[in-house]
Amino acid sequence: MSDHTPHPAMDAYWMPFTANRQFKKAPRLLTRADGMYFTDDKGRQILDGIAGLWCVNAGHNRPKIVQAIQQQAAELDFAPPFQMAHPKAFELAERLAALTPAGLNKVFFTNSGSESVETALKMAIAYHRVRGEGARTRLIGRERGYHGVNFGGISVGGMVANRKMFGTLLSGVDHIRHTHDHARNAFSLGQPAHGAEFADDLERLIALHDASTIAAVIVEPVAGSTGVLIPPQGYLQRLREICDKHGILLIFDEVITGFGRTGNPFGAQTFGVTPDLMTVAKGLTNGCVPMGAVFAKQGIHDAFMNGPEHLIEFFHGYTYSAHPLACAAALGTLDTYADEGLLTRAAELQGYFAESLHALRNEPHVIDIRNIGLVGGIELAPLPGEPAKRAFNIFLDCYEKGLLIRTTGDTIALSPPLIIERSHIDQIVDTLRGALKRAA
Which of 32, 44, 88, 326 is most buried as measured by Cβ atoms within 10 A of its Cβ? Predict the structure, then answer.
């Protein structure tokens, strides 16, 4: 494609989570993708350092996924999901249940991580009601948590920019403190040693509200969008213990950590803690067709299976739940993961990834580096009076040098496709080193 390819008209499209005015002055348009690389509208190769948006775990343009989508579109383009179904929905649910931690064997399909979170929150509240504990309606999130952008998700979420513009949000929501402890844990390799006691903040909220009013606690095993916060050793185990003690459901939001990002199929397996409900999306279809899911324990599902058999048990769902194209894409994705051992490949590469990332420790502006599996965060000292600008400038610099990274606030986030090789890790780190040295 020529360097002089005209840009499309750009006035109508209001872009999500984007500095629209800046973008439209200097557009970054991607036109193709294959393997580890995007191609932009000028024909340049851009190394994908963030798996698209934490989602393209198997890399781009994978044959089994492409073929599955093409064949499905010609065979069955849509099937109504209410009171009807199609075979691939059941096949996919069985395949997924075989990958999840023991006990999470029921699968409810959605279309995104945001929808998965809304679904899990509704399941949790309704579960307590059908059990006769209808007073358990309160939801507990965590400061600096990200759980999508719908009202439930931003209510339990704890990122101020996602919340402040949208009114009072859901009532009956509270938050435990975040786990970031820069003073004690800066430059930790993997899980930080300090901070398990932060889980005890949940006991404070239980004392305030009483356990009889609390339905569920929702956390990300690794807080991704807020800047890659790794759980301290023992922290998730302690949360699990407190929830069990008080009859509160524990929800893991694994939209980012699911499907191999931490070295196991799910973060729950990496950290050895099984939640009651788990939300997923992104890597479920390798980002090819929008899809999400909620995994539920058998007992949660069975609590709803009462009353006359002809009545709907759970009044919730979406027009596109278990969409045929999404199911086909997900099955092709699972085949690709299995063929290449991708769901555990991060465990094989995490040592080299961590060593390479932490080699940036003494570069200009770096104040912390965090890592687990194939996810990394590099926190920068902000420009005085201009939060997020230094990281954004580095994002632009890296893009010009052929590397796509993600920034959130003044943290650079990395989550490359799981097909990454050591040479790609070297390219990411070398490009970042140059950008850090050039940054104001």
Answer: 326
